[in-house]
Write a structure and sequence with these properties.
Number of domains: 2
Radius of gyration: 18 Å
CATH superfamily of the largest domain: Response regulator
Strand content: 15-25%
Order of helices and strands: EEEHEHEEEHEHEHEEEEHHHEE
CATH architecture of the largest domain: 3-Layer(aba) Sandwich
CATH topology of the largest domain: Rossmann fold
Distance between the termini: 55 Å
Largest sheet: 5 strands, parallel
CATH class of the largest domain: Alpha Beta
Structural class: alpha/beta
Shape: globular
């Protein structure tokens, strides 16, 4: 089981939710698992802790706050260079809202109602990806049809032009490029990107794939992302009109 301590210190979690009952419940559950938890009830409180306390290792952030929204908080964090992994708790389950959260820099989201077990699993996945990432060789590159991923720098380019990607978009594209235009199954993609192969993540994959597809289309590259049925996806060469 993944430890909830790093070195001699427990993993620090900042929990931001305006519902006092849910906040207390989640704090108790997380502390029972060995996390050290600080809380805030609104965006101002969250921002105060992010700026004036030691930064947390993980952030659990509710979408709806009395003085703003979770995506607004997350976007402000990313603009300030705060890279803490964010798990968004939300009752918003349509594609437009999910894309909004992902574009704001949210790493993962969990739709209410949810089980505590799934919340803990998602936090473990975020933790695992942050502290147990496989090292890569300097200047290790993946290249396909003008698309290039620099795994060392964590950057992407298309026909020599920088391609701005969210972290999860980068990891999804990496997983698809590694199979070289072959279909990659849902379980394999969830395991590679989120470490969550045991969950039904069809909607999660769809949101990221559609967001990534939009960026590839806007950049007018030779590749597109295709759904292959049964939750599988692949990179394919775009068929251009004569």
């Amino acid at each position: 089981m993944l430890s909830t301590t790093t070195a001699d210190s427990p993993i620090q979690v900042l929990l931001v939710d305006d519902d006092p009952r849910l906040r207390t419940l989640l704090q108790d559950e997380l502390e029972d698992e060995g996390y050290q938890v600080s809380t805030a009830a609104d965006a101002a409180g969250a921002w105060d802790q992010l700026n004036h306390c030691s930064p947390p290792d993980l952030l659990v952030l509710d979408w709806s706050l009395p003085d703003g929204s979770g995506p607004e908080v997350c976007q402000r964090m990313r603009e300030a260079g705060i890279t803490v992994p964010v798990l968004m708790l939300t009752g918003h389950d349509d594609v437009t809202d999910r894309v909004l959260a992902l574009d704001a820099g949210v790493d993962d989201y969990l739709v209410k109602p949810f089980s505590v077990e799934e919340l803990l699993a998602r936090l473990r996945a975020l933790q695992r990806r942050r502290w147990e990432a496989e090292p890569v060789e300097p200047d290790q590159l993946l290249q396909l049809a003008g698309l290039e991923l620099n795994l060392t720098a964590g950057s992407a380019s298309l026909d020599g032009t920088p391609l701005p990607l969210l972290q999860k978009e980068f990891e999804l594209l990496q997983a698809l490029m590694r199979v070289d235009q072959q279909a990659c199954g849902q379980a394999d993609l969830l395991a590679a990107v989120w470490g969550l192969a045991e969950f039904d993540g069809h909607a999660l994959l769809e949101v990221y794939a559609e967001s990534l597809q939009g960026k590839l289309r806007t950049s007018q590259g030779a590749l597109q992302i295709e759904a292959c049925g049964d939750g599988a996806w692949r990179l394919a060469r775009r068929v251009l009109a004569p």
